[in-house]
Amino acid sequence: MENSINTIQLVRTMNGKSIRVKIFGNEYPLRGENEDLTKRVASYVDGMLMKIHDKIPEQPPLTVAVLSALNITEDLLQEREKRTQEVTHLEAEVEKLSNYLDNCLLSEPSDEQLL
Question: Is residue 1 situated within a structural domain?
């Protein structure tokens, strides 16, 4: 099932517009549905490769690429964790508000009690 989802996403992406980007000194033709997003992704990857290369210029390109992939993945996982924590916090706040409103409604006298 997972493989078919990836295939569908690949086919959908392949139908997008071709965009030429430069990453780590090499040009690549990429396809994507959103040109701006594709360019930003390529720029982010290029920036990470350059940052790692500047810190350890003696390393071969493959090592720089692997270290960059690890850093990008770490950034992604940290953002996912942050988002999960924010969603959990918001859910707790919504639950508090819901309980508060339920209590307010239960403690209000009904129309019949007012008569």
Answer: no
DSSP three-state, residue 86: helix
Is the full-model pTM beyond 0.85?
Answer: no
Q: Is residue 31 assigned to a domain?
A: yes
The number of domains in the chain is 1
DSSP codes of every residue in 62-79: HHHHHHHHHHHHHHHHHH
The per-residue pLDDT for range 19-76, each reduced to its tens digit, is 999 999 999 999 988 999 999 999 999 999 999 999 999 999 999 999 999 999 999 9
Say what the alpha-carbon torsion angle 71, 73, 77, 83 is, to the nearest 10 degrees. 100
Is the Cβ–Cβ distance between 68 and 52 less than 8 Å? yes
Q: Is residue 100 part of a domain?
A: yes
